[in-house]
Amino acid sequence: MRLHATNWLVGFLVMMGATAHAYANCGDVAIEGYCDGNTRHYCNTAEVVTEECESCCGWNGARYDCLTDCPLPGECVDECNDVSKFGCSLENTHEWTCAVGANGCTTRTYTACGPDQICDESTTHQCAAKTNINVCGPIPSYGICQGNVFKQCVNGEIVQTDCGAQGLQCGPSGCADCVDVCEEGTAKCLAGNKQSSCVTFNGCFQWSGAKSCGIKTCVDGQCIVPAKTPDEGVDAGSTAEVTVEPPPGVSNNSSSSSGGCIMGLTNAGMLDGSLMLLATILGLILFRNSVDGQR
C-alpha cells in the first residue's frame, strides 16, 4: 500500500512538472546539457531538447545555458574549481568529473548512470545501485534548491522540479516567478581570482558563472590590471632634497693613557710645557758659561 501511494504521488508530481529520476532516457545528456557552438542541448523530462542561442551558449555556474553576458574573446569560464573535483548531476542521473580543456579552463564530463542506479551525492558522488544507498541523502523533506532545480525527499524518493524548464526560478518554497539574489549592475570576486556579475536570467537577477580574470586581478568585482609598484630610491633627475649627515667632529680634547695615568694635552698645556723646556735649556747654558769663566 505504501509503494502504491508513493507511485501515485510521484506520478502526480510528474504531471505538475516535477519528476523522479529520468534514468538513461537522455543517454549521456544530463539536465545540465552541453554547448555545440551557439546551440544548447539538455535533458528535460527524459527528452533531449535543442535550443539555438541568440548571443552565446556557455556555463552559467550550474548548467549550460543561453547567455546574455558572454565571455570576451580569449576568456573562458571554469566549470569546476579544480581537476580534483567530481560530483553528481542536478537530477542525480549522471556523475561528472573535471579536467583542463584545450582552452586552459576546467570543463566537466558527464557519464550516465545505469537504469537501476543513482548518483550518490551523500557519500561517493558516483553512480551506485539504488538499493545500496540512501537515495535522498542530504535532500530534506521541505526541499532545497540545487542550481535552478527544486528537490524534495518524499517517502524515500527524490522528487524534483526543473524550474528553469518552466521559465521560473528556484526559491526556498519551490519554483517562483522571480527570485532576485543580487542587485542589477553589481559584481563580486570569487575564490581563485574569479569574477561573477549580476545578470538577468529568465527575468530575474542572478549571479553569472565564475569567470577567470587570468593575468588580471579581481578587485571589487572587476578584472583589472595590477598597479605597478613604484621604484624605490631617488631618480637621477629628481629635485628632492637629500640630507647628508656631516662626518663626526674631531674633539679638541684628546687623551692618552700610560701606566694607568691620563695626561691631558690641551693647547694651553702644550704652550706651558714648551716655555718650561726653553727655560731649562737657557738655564743649563748659563750655568755652563759660568763654570767655564771660573776656570
The biggest sheet, with number of strands, parallel, antiparallel or mixed sense and barrel status, is: 4 strands, antiparallel
End-to-end Cα distance, whole Å, is: 163 Å
Shape: elongated
In percent terms, what proportion of residues is strand?
Answer: 25-35%
Question: What does this entry look like structurally?
Answer:
There is one protein chain. Helix content is about 15%, strand content about 35%. The chain is an alpha+beta fold and about 300 residues long. It folds into two domains: about 1-180, no CATH class; about 185-225, no CATH class.
Provide tags for this entry.
disordered N terminus; 2 helices; elongated; 295 residues; alpha+beta
Give a summary of the structure in a few sentences.
This protein is of the alpha+beta class. It is built from 2 helices and 24 strands. The strands form 9 sheets. Strands 1-14-13-12 form a 4-stranded antiparallel beta sheet, with helices on one face.
